[in-house]
Amino acid sequence: MLQLSEFLPPRPESSWKLIRQAGVDNVVGVLNGAEQDQRMFASVGSAGWKPDDRDEVPWSVAALKHNMEIYEKWGFTLIATEDTAPMDKIRLGLDGRDEQIDQFIEQIRSLGHLGIPTMAYNWMAITTWGRTDTRLVDRGGAFVTGYNQKIAQAGPALAPEGEISREQMWDALDYFLKAVVPEAEKAGVRLAMHPDDPPQQIDRGVPRIMSSVASYRRLLEMAPSDYNGITFCQGNFALMSEVIDGEVAIPELIREFGTAKIPFVHFRDVKGTVEDFRETFHDNGQTDMAECLRAYHDIGFEGAMRPDHVPTLEGETNDRPGYEMLGRLFAIGYIRGLEHAAYGHPSAR
Ligand SMILES: O=C(O)[C@@H](O)[C@@H](O)[C@H](O)[C@H](O)CO
């Protein structure tokens, strides 16, 4: 059984009932007011979520326990977090990174203490996922997000050209892994690196190093441990040059990395290349999603999987591009259907 999950901030809304009704029992959470909670929609120019004013360190045991209780009231189990304390000094190897690493370790320990097995993070310094459009018209008038590299890169620089080097970011990653992977092992919490979105080499002066299949192989070699793993975000892997050039397909990558390196999956798809792409409904992109589920079944994957970005459907405001509600329901049903086809109906397993 997959641990089918949804991505929810610890701030309930009545629409959470729909997710329960669609058959999802698990939550991947953000941390109230932490890095992704703040960057999540700001980076695509939208207002999105607002943190609650709470007197708690968001990555502490107390705050996470509070979040768990909120989710539990609605019938959900928190099985992963996809948010961290601020990490840019760590990512860039700047002064002050040791304090940020201490906060990261505090979160690992908090999760371990509470029995939450997975912690996703990313190596995107300064911003998070980026799009140039959040209102491209798709099937039946639904809106999807899209990216055009020329338009994006004509925007204001995030850092002066040449100031940050790729090697600086790789060295910083090495320093970080040496500090945190042993802690993750001790706490029993699997780290899961999310790819750069879009997986391009540089974003307005800031190198993006987690943007190819080769970079993931390098990450895994840097700290060989089942606790140094991947958020296998299919939509981003689908845009990496090795996949676009036909050297390797997504199902083959699933088989290559295996359950030992994939604790967590983001299920979504795209059409296009990293220079110019749009997101799609889950049944309508350029990846063979049915074959992906067969690959997950073959490797014995029973971890967390959540739909990632979904189209905005009729009647929705599009205040939260990629994360409105109706598209999630479609995605959840689609994943469940493919899961039953690949893994067998529960009664037959
Ligand atoms: O592929 C992506 O960009 C996503 O997974 C992000 O939207 C992610 O959910 C947020 O940055 C929060 O981690």
Descriptive report:
With 349 residues, the protein is an alpha/beta fold. It has 13 helices and 14 strands. The strands form three sheets. It has an eight-stranded parallel β-barrel, surrounded by five helices. A four-stranded antiparallel β-sheet has the order 5-6-13-12. The structure holds D-mannonic acid. D-mannonic acid binds at residues 36, 40, 82, 128-129, 194, 197, 233, 235-236, 266, 308. Pfam families: UxuA (PF03786). This is mannonate dehydratase. It is an enzyme of class 4 (lyase). It catalyses: D-mannonate = 2-dehydro-3-deoxy-D-gluconate + H2O.
Quote the distance from N terminus to C terminus. 9 Å
Topology-level CATH name: TIM Barrel
Question: How many H/I helices?
Answer: 13
The residue ranges in which pLDDT falls below 50 over 5 or more consecutive positions are none
- How many domains make up the coordinates? 1
* Radius of gyration (Å): 19 Å
CATH-level-2 architecture: Alpha-Beta Barrel
Shape: globular
CATH class: Alpha Beta
Name of the CATH superfamily: Divalent-metal-dependent TIM barrel enzymes
Distinct ligands, ions and cofactors found in the model: D-mannonic acid
Q: Indicate the multimeric state.
A: single chain
Beta-strand percent range: 15-25%
